UniProtKB/TrEMBL annotation:
This is Peroxidase. The keyword Lipid metabolism does not apply. Its cofactor is heme b; Ca(2+). Residues 27-325 form the Plant heme peroxidase family profile domain.
């Protein structure tokens, strides 16, 4: 354990340096709104907190939202744009939630600091706050992102993780975003909160001649599989969801990794993390040490929210997150 932790510490130091250099180049900075809108971060946090107290599923939705935004066109709020053939219209994004929270924060910020705070920064900060509100670490992330002006449905599928992905497919996709194998394992820990539709793991079961589901993916714990069948029987309504984490569904903790070792990863893309020697070692480390997971989460989340950012004279500061200013 000491050897693996030491290796992780060295890796984290490298990631910090890489992230710092990337941020300087990207012109993001800490306290970006200190002069132009000093209350920006507290306003966003208050909106996320009040929304989460009303709907405890909000933190998971906001965390998923930032992933789906940053992986397509970079962290530029392209997912917020509405209209025909935008990213929201792709089936992979139709179940993404949390948009109303971002819109609420934007409306208030436009009253206090018109034309100042980007929707892209609101998404990143809201996801950061959601993690802390759910019991996770508070991550310091820089701001200064600008909003993109392009949102095309056809860009979604090649750029988001499918729940049936193999290890190689996930590694390739994460690498294309500048994210490492370590980042892959850490950021997968986001599945410690949130929910998923029954269709997202349907490929692990097969319907028999009597219309009942049976487990065909033997990497899944049979008792857990039976619970999933009860919650998601054949013919279940498309709107039905189950918790990503069957143990502590509303808490951002390291239970996700403990679930993986117990063969209770909801998606195939979760389960494959223990089929690879390198990633399994990381899973074991994080399952045994929540603080280690939290420390590494900070750096990987910082990298995630810096993917493909637009700064300076690129993009714009939208007045409404749902449409460009033009």
């Amino acid at each position: 354990m000491e050897t693996r932790t030491g290796t992780l510490s060295i890796t984290v130091c490298s990631l910090v340096m890489f992230s710092f250099v990337s941020l300087v180049k990207g012109s993001l900075s800490f306290n970006f709104y200190a002069a132009s809108c000093p209350s920006a971060e507290s306003i966003i946090r208050n909106i996320v907190s009040s929304s989460s107290s009303t709907d405890p599923t909000i933190p998971g939705k906001l965390l998923r939202l930032v992933f789906h935004d940053c992986f397509v066109e970079g962290c530029d709020a392209s997912l917020m744009l509405q209209g025909n053939n935008t990213e929201q219209s792709d089936p992979g994004n139709r179940s993404v939630g949390g948009f109303t929270v971002i819109d609420s924060a934007k409306r208030i910020l436009e009253k206090f600091c018109p034309g100042t705070v980007s929707c892209a920064d609101i998404i990143a900060l809201a996801a950061r706050d959601a993690v802390e509100i759910a019991g996770g670490p508070r991550t310091m992330i820089p701001t200064g992102r600008r909003d993109g002006m392009v949102s095309v449905a056809s860009n979604v599928r090649p750029n988001i993780v499918d729940t049936s992905f193999s290890m190689d497919e996930m590694v390739k996709l994460f690498a294309s975003k500048g994210l490492s194998l370590l980042d892959l394992v850490i950021l997968s820990g986001a599945h410690t909160i949130g929910t998923a539709h029954c269709s997202s793991f349907r490929d692990r079961f097969q319907e028999d001649s009597k219309g009942k589901l049976r487990l065909i993916d033997k990497t899944l714990n049979s008792d857990y599989a039976n619970e999933l069948i009860k919650q998601c029987p054949a013919g279940v309504q498309p709107s039905v969801t189950v918790n990503n984490d069957p143990e502590t569904s509303m808490a951002f903790d390291n239970m996700y990794y403990q679930n993986l070792l117990a063969h209770k990863g909801l998606f195939q893309s979760d389960s494959v993390l223990i089929s690879n020697d390198s990633t399994r070692k990381l899973v074991v480390d994080f399952a045994n040490d929540q603080e280690l997971f939290f420390e590494n989460w900070d750096q990987s989340f910082l990298k995630l929210t810096s993917v493909g950012v637009k700064t300076g004279d690129k993009g714009e500061i939208r007045i409404s997150c749902a449409s460009t200013n033009a």
